[in-house]
Fold Bifunctional protein FolD.
Amino acid sequence: MARILYGKEFAARIKASAEHGAIALRAHGVNPCLAVIIVGNDPASEVYVRNKEKACAELGIRSNHIPLPAETTREELLACIDELNADEEVHGILVQLPLPAPLSESSEEVLSRIDPRKDVDGFHPVSVGHLFLGTPGLRPCTPAGCIRMLEYAGIRMEGAHAVIIGRSNIVGKPMAMLLLERHATVTLCHSRTENLAAITREADILVAAVGQPHFVTADMVKPGATVIDVGINRIAPKKLVGDVDFEAVEKVAGAITPVPGGVGLLTVAMLMENVVQAAKAQTEAKGE
Ligand code: NDP
């Protein structure tokens, strides 16, 4: 049976590191602060935002919750971001996605309006550029959290063959860059990949970020592989499952993350770490 990589254990370590950083900043009179803009009232987004606020409260990070009505215009949202960009007391800005229509058409423009120094989601083109170049910058929380978990769990990345299913800008692509930075040999798969199972069976580390319940079956996994399930799929009002057929794959894999209780917890913890990192970098830049 595989080792279960519970998100709680690793998230606690990431949060402890963030808390440590927040304490050091407060000792210098800087109170790290995250502003979260949520437009409309999508129930799933409200849950995510509440989780982020809870994590902030837990670590003594200030959170500034900005709920905007679903009818908010593009200009109003951009003006709100401009105000937060100019506010020196705000260190991180997050716009909860997805934005409601028709604002969703402006998502890229909205994310690009955030000051890259405050881009704690790591989605700004400048942050993406830093990730690509391997230069310091804020990294997207979900893949960065997965890397931290692999490090803490002592799972070898250097020289390992890492296969990622999914090439989105928020999970698949940044995960590939981060694994490459850790010297893994990376294969990125997607909906047009041929012979997917033959490729995934070669993986020492298999990351599933597809968005389809039970997509990864036991026959797709090499015995002893580490399987990271990023997927969150709601299959009933109160039932969440990942992209991996957990019960079957657990019998083959060497290590596996559960859903719920896996990667989702790492994402929020990593967001806290990014807020602290952003506050630190902004403070240092001011020469405080
Ligand atoms: P996207 O829908 O943006 O991307 C899904 C990817 O899966 C695409 O690249 C797509 O390929 C690929 N794909 C779809 N079908 C197949 C197939 N049959 N074979 C191979 N590849 C396929 O999703 P996200 O990356 O945003 O999210 C993925 C999952 O992770 C979702 O369940 C989401 O809810 C979850 N998630 C979880 C987070 C967490 O904190 N745990 C955070 C973010 C996301 P193509 O590009 O060719 O269309």
Q: What stands out?
A: The chain has a mean pLDDT of 97. Residues 35 and 93 are 5 Å apart (CA to CA). Residues 29-115 form a domain with the Rossmann fold fold (CATH 3.40.50.10860). DSSP finds ten helices and eleven strands in the chain.
